[in-house]
Amino acid sequence: QVQLVQSGAEVKKPGASVKVSCKASGYTFTSYDINWVRQATGQGLEWMGWMNPNSGNTGYAQKFQGRVTMTRNTFISTAYMELSSLRSEDTAVYYCARGGSYSKLDYWGQGTLVTVSS
Amino acid sequence: SYELTQPPSVSVSPGQTASITCSGDKLGDKYACWYQQKPGQSPVLVIYQDNKRPSGIPERFSGSNSGNTATLTINGTQAMDDADYYCQTWDSSTVVFGTGTKVTVL
Questions:
Q1: Using one digit for the tens of pLDDT, what is the confidence trace for B29-70?
Q2: Mean per-residue pLDDT of chain A
Q3: What pLDDT digit, counting tens, does each position of B81-90 carry?
Q4: Chain A residues whose C-beta sits inside 8 Å of any chain B C-beta
């Protein structure tokens, strides 16, 4: 069965960077895009960007341009999302999600809580 | 940038029908998806391509999309359907989520 397993919770200081991983299993990793979505406590879903694991091509939401980097390691079927220059407003649960046909996000990771606090 | 607007909340009695709207400019020209999210859990896809249900999603969930509005309908609502619901589409190479609707089953 398709699974996306994310790395554990992180606590970071303002100005630092965080890198979250998302390990895929149960399907061919290079055949589907990986999207990243975040959700602050009590707030809605916010899309951050996508990555094509086959080509490495990426597309980022304008809000995160210059601060986010999405990469992958195809040998271990793992996608990464790195967010830099963290501020308190970046405190949120970060999800990876597989991008299927017709722009649906059909499988989601369990989420990674990133807390930014001095 | 493209925006999708949902009502903040919808209340429904068990066994009744809940309808959640999602409004966006010419949304009917795009594909719409819907996600269900329960507290402390990851979102779950319940409708894609306007009206298709993934395997495992109950038949009581249905969707439509026309004009400027997509609609998620839950027939015979059950207590387990109490959750947040988000619509989603794709515009100019960007995923766009709706503002979210809290469905309360009273």
A1: 999 999 999 999 999 999 999 999 999 999 999 999 999 999
A2: 97
A3: 999 999 999 9
A4: 35, 37, 44-47, 50, 59, 61-62, 95, 97, 100, 102-106, 108-111
Q: Which of B1, B95, B99 sits opposite A103 (nearest CB)?
A: B95
| Inter-residue contact A74 to A30 (CB < 8 Å) | yes
Separation CA A72–CA A56 (nearest Å):
7
B31 CB-near residues (< 8 Å, 6+ apart): A102, A103, A104, B48, B49, B50, B65, B89, B90
| C-alpha span between B67 and A88 (Å, rounded) | 39
Report CA-CA distances (Å) from B21 to A18, A42, A45, B24, B33. 36, 21, 17, 10, 12
Interface test with B, best of A37, A38, A45, A106 (most B CBs within 10 A): A45
Please list, in sequence order, all residues whose beta carbon lies within 8 angstroms of the beta carbon of residue B58, skipping any fewer than 6 positions away. none
- Band of the pLDDT at A100, cuts 50, 70, 90? confident
Q: How many CB pairs below 8 Å do chains A and B form together?
A: 61
